[in-house]
Amino acid sequence: MIDLGHPLLKVLAILITLILWRRWAPASYWALIVFPRKALWLRWTWRHVASGCGLTKKRHRWWFTTVPGLVASTGVVQVKRRFQRVAVDTKPWMGLPRPVRHGFRITFHLLDGQVPDDYAKVCERLAHAWRIEAVRVVGSRPGRVTLQGITRDPLAHVAPAVPPAEPRDGWRADDLLRPVVGVLETGAAWRMDLRLIPHWMNAGATQSGKSNLINALIVGLAPQPVALVGFDLKGGVELSAYAARLTTLATTRAECLDLLSDLIAVMGARMLACRRYGVRDIWQLPDAARPIPVVVLVDELAELFLTADKAEKDQVTRTATALLRIAQLGRAFGIHLVLSGQRIGSDLGPGVTALRAQIGGRVCHRVNDPETAVMTLGDLDPDALVAARSIAPELPGVAVITGSDGRWYRARSGYVSTTAAEQAAGTYADVTPSWNQVAASGLGHELPGADTPELAA
Ligand SMILES: Nc1ncnc2c1ncn2[C@@H]1O[C@H](COP(=O)(O)OP(=O)(O)OP(=O)(O)O)[C@@H](O)[C@H]1O
């Protein structure tokens, strides 16, 4: 007969319960079992960790001790008296760690002379010291910085993006040009905010997830009153599936050049309208007079810059100049670029380097060559480069991106199959403005002086 009260059986039952709890409800297991121990340990070791990571500062303090030799243990001064003014290492004040999904958050008070970037620079050191996957700066306000410790990669499993089921359900006015395309490593939504960062570069090796991001963008933008324009230099194989929601699609270099000229003409007309109203950009225009925003999706940017002979060189120069003009002026006039490609290196010509300087939004998926990573992220932070170079091939869709706060983040797009994106494009086909509507939108609505010859033209 088994004695159910036997201590060994009790221990076994507790162990099995813990294992099952951890497996089936990892979030509550983390918050109630693992986190309290971790939080105590973080507080207990903070002085050593802060000192090891270079976050402490020397401060002079009055120090009283009954055992003078003890003060020497700070490694600063040898004192003979019991009451002494000594230099000691001061650690930044650490708030109470708070559990979050996949980790914890802690707010620190910055010591005088410190800035949040000092913490961003030592994130990798902190992650090793705390024995966790990663540490990121997730917020700051005057005198405070909040760090998030990530205990396991939250990007390993990201829920697929679900296209809105009902037409017109898909967006709110606040979401205009701010589609959610995935999740950030911190667990927050990855919003590709075209209003804040007007142009984006989407780089990555083959099979790294570039097209998936375009699909997620199509699903996010399809319900919105925006014009989507496609440049598909892969002969249309990537974007033609979404033709129902595209205002126009160019598939050859000549077509691209014509379309770029048309976009520049539209931009010129919008410029004139803004001037007539005395405003700086289309977002300051009255709602009725605001032109339709245009999002230009370019697939395989390198194809636009490759030259085989002299005749093509002229075409490429004109294309590069047109893209650069849109990148420079497009934000104010509601024309946004999303440039995708495998190679976005300076070997494609000086046009690419100049273009990059105008593109604030960066998405760097797994890349084959360091130069594309440097080209995409190089002016962000050396740590961003390291993070991009270490994206594993088995995690397509993972990328290093610029966040709305100007910092870099690891993120992963929500999986969107071509079929789902095609379906979304079909559902919202009736939202698609024609090219004539795009060109004429916003012009002539009670425009002061609309009858002037230059505008009428
Ligand atoms: N966020 C994601 N989650 C899960 N799977 C993804 C994700 N992104 C991409 N994939 C998968 O990875 C594979 C490659 O993705 P995708 O076609 O987007 O890559 P790509 O960079 O556009 O490749 P190529 O340059 O060859 O067209 C696809 O099978 C896709 O289903």
From TrEMBL:
MF terms in GO: ATP binding; DNA binding
Keywords: ATP-binding, Nucleotide-binding
FtsK domain location: 177-374
Domain of life: Bacteria
Coiled coil: none
Annotated residues for binding of ATP: G204, A205, T206, Q207, S208, G209, K210, S211
InterPro entries tied to this protein: FtsK/SpoIIIE/SftA, FtsK_dom, P-loop_NTPase
Pfam families with a match to the protein in the record: FtsK_SpoIIIE
The protein, known as: S-DNA-T family DNA segregation ATPase FtsK/SpoIIIE
Species name: Streptosporangium album
